[in-house]
What we know:
The structure is a single chain. The protein is mainly α. It contains 23 helices and three strands. A three-stranded antiparallel sheet has the order 1-2-3, with no helix packed on it. A hairpin with a 6-residue loop joins strand 2 and strand 3 (about 405-410). Helix 12 crosses helix 14 and helix 16 (about 355-370) packs antiparallel against helix 18 (about 410-425). It starts with 5 loop residues before the first helix and ends in a 14-residue tail after the last helix.
Amino acid sequence: MKHINMKDLVEQVLNALRQSGMREKQIKDYKYCGFYPICQYFSDKGLITYTKNVADEFILRIRAGYEQGKISRWKWNTVRRSAELLEKYHTEGTVTLPQLTQWEVLHNPLHQVPSSQLLLESNNLIVLVYQTKQELLRFGHREKTISNYVYDGFDAILRYCGERGITQYEKDAIDSFVAQTRAGYENHLICRSVYQNVRKVATLLDEYHKTGKIELKRIPAWGLRMSNTYYTESLNAFCRENEQTGALAHSTISVAHSAIRNFLFELEDMGYVDFDRVTLPVVSECMSHTAKRYAGGLGAMLFAIRSFLRFLHRNGTTQIDLSIAMPEMVAKRRMVRQGFGTGETEKMLCSANINSSIGKRDYAIMLTAIQTGLRAVDIVNLKRQDIDWRNYEIRIIQSKTGHPLNLPLESETGNAIADYLLNGRPKCDIPFIFLCDNRPYRPLKNRSASAMISRYMQRTGIDKSDIPRRGFHSFRRSFGAGLLESEIPLDMLSELLGHTHMDSAKPYLAANELGLKSCAIGLTPTQKAGEGW
Length: 533
């Protein structure tokens, strides 16, 4: 059919729908809520003959009303379906329609591949969104995760920029949108998950725009203060050198990074934006202010900043070695940190749901910590080749000390790990034993393991306030205390715990109440000189 009167077309479609067996109620919905509004639009434009282009114009107007909340979703779907029925009957003489493709898939740039010419514009916002989304797909995220990023993040950013006529990537504009979303979250107008998706997507877009790739990593906390560019580059150079040379362990570099940032903030607050005018008295004064931030761990803070200042002098950034202004020693603060009791560890083990993959993993991690005393970082870094199943041994290189350590593998621990490997662990080629359960699969971090123990403590009612500073390391304390109670010699205890110095065992001695009682000097009566003669 080439030319047909609009009203005649509608009557023919209605008759075809009745002949197809459609319920009269549904036909009335199409007639009054779909076909008639379309006919009215044609009439308002002075048109009598059906034209697809004009029908499409009306559909776009209805879609805009739906997006603005003026039209219900039911009304939008009815009008759109009616227009499809008109076009189908006009071109093919039938009203048999397949399931309609979602509007977003057909019209949203997020669901379309940019043209080859448009792909050459690396700064184009639609191209950047498309390429970033493709990178996420390559990481193997779950479909629901990608969907959340698309609709909460990418789509929202494209709408925000489209309303302002922004077609090229502008970080300031996207930062403004993130700040607006944050304000909505703080005012309880937006849920936390939507805000997090918006912020995550904005970070990914900026990273891909700068580097052409993305990495899976935590984004900094909102409002986190950043040093100026000069200080940031100096700190990053210090961290890179120690990563490459292996002079400091990765975990030590992370702790040092935080301490040095605080030191640099103090310099900025004192008016110094580089190291040209920084002198020994300035460093001394700055350290006095920085030390106030630390209730404990002053020794680690001093070590980090001293190493950083020596690095600056060694690389020619400073003319003199500013590290000589740092105090050489700090009074150590001793704190007796108790481990978990037997009843507490049993509670946490029993609370793990070993019928689920996550429960099997958590149970195996906790049991490994209880029966070996390994640090969290060494447990999450366990690989398949680290376990000698035939000889019932765990053989690792310790992350903290770099020294090898061989430990016996108890049957309970071995069975728990085997159960996780065979029945709970995701199928992938990653060599590490313990993995995140969500895709993309990746090794656990020691921070994640610590958070896991905090959750189990909360779940089983173990109150942190009763005995402060308890967490994953408390398993190691319990293991050491148990060895002492079994009258294991101190040198063997240090060997089993992987200590490089005998002094490292002193905190375990302090926590051994029975041993301390046996060392106590009894109270005996005294007499003055000259008495008893």
